[in-house]
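@channel sequence for tomorrow's demo:
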Amino acid sequence: MMRKPSCLLSILLLSSFGLGACSSDNDPQCSAAPSCVSPEASTYDSQVDPTDSSYETSIEASPDTDTSEGGEAASGSDAPAESALPEASSPDGLRFMTFNIQHGANASLDAIAEAIRNENPDIVGLQEVDVDAQRSGHVDQPRVLSQRTGMAAAFQFSLTFSSGGYYGLAVLSRFPIVSTSKRLLSSTGEQRILMRVDVLTEHALLPVGVTHLGLTAGERKTQVSEILEDLGSEGFAVLMGDMNAQPGDEEMKSLASAMNDAWLESSGQGFTFPVDTPTKRIDYIFLGNNWPSPTQAHVPTTKTSDHRPVVVFVPWN
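structure tokens (generated this afternoon):
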């Protein structure tokens, strides 16, 4: 049974000890979070402020939210008490979802948000996410998805575009996100990162990682080793992402030896790519060794991206 933390105490501990943050501003393998957003916020914060009430309380989308794809959220209602936390999708556990959204190239963000809402997840890891990029209409995609789903959001970029804008990873959460950071992974091609957020649930402060691994086996092997340095010893860690590798590949065997592949508790092949007729399992959710075995896992049939998402339900005990 996990110990239930005090919301404010957990936030103060994060602030005091720098959990989930970089060792220094000049650390070449890690940089502070450029952005974290609640559904009501008008702009991204430059960094997570653990004393900001938006990270201590339940975050809900305003009922007056603009529903146009590039719209800003209207100001929200009064925040609940500091000790209040949102309820999970189920009192018995948490539902996790990983989804490579292909920067909205295959469907509108409204359709992607609907696909997410249909699964009723508690925490979502997103890959291939744009912010203010020309190719996706200069839309702040994490903000729009936050507004459409009513979930808190955080974003970390891995690349910037010469025409302006950012590309990277995001997390949507039913619960407050109290810190976010990234680690630059060794990359021979496109720069890859590990995004980490610490999410405050009523049962525990959860370290959640999201990544999108490289295209060659050699770099993926190194990237997996670096990810495990950060998350491998965290008993209640969750790692989600597009790994660009199949279960029999050596780098995935290495990852599965340190964390638990959530899909293995389900029947079926778990194929997620390509979207029309999937033949490969390259999208995963891994759990730290203190988690009980998942009781449900499935691949939704949505075709709003070039990947299908993966959803798992994990009981608390």
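heads up for whoever presents: Residues 1-35, 38-82 have pLDDT under 50 and may be disordered.
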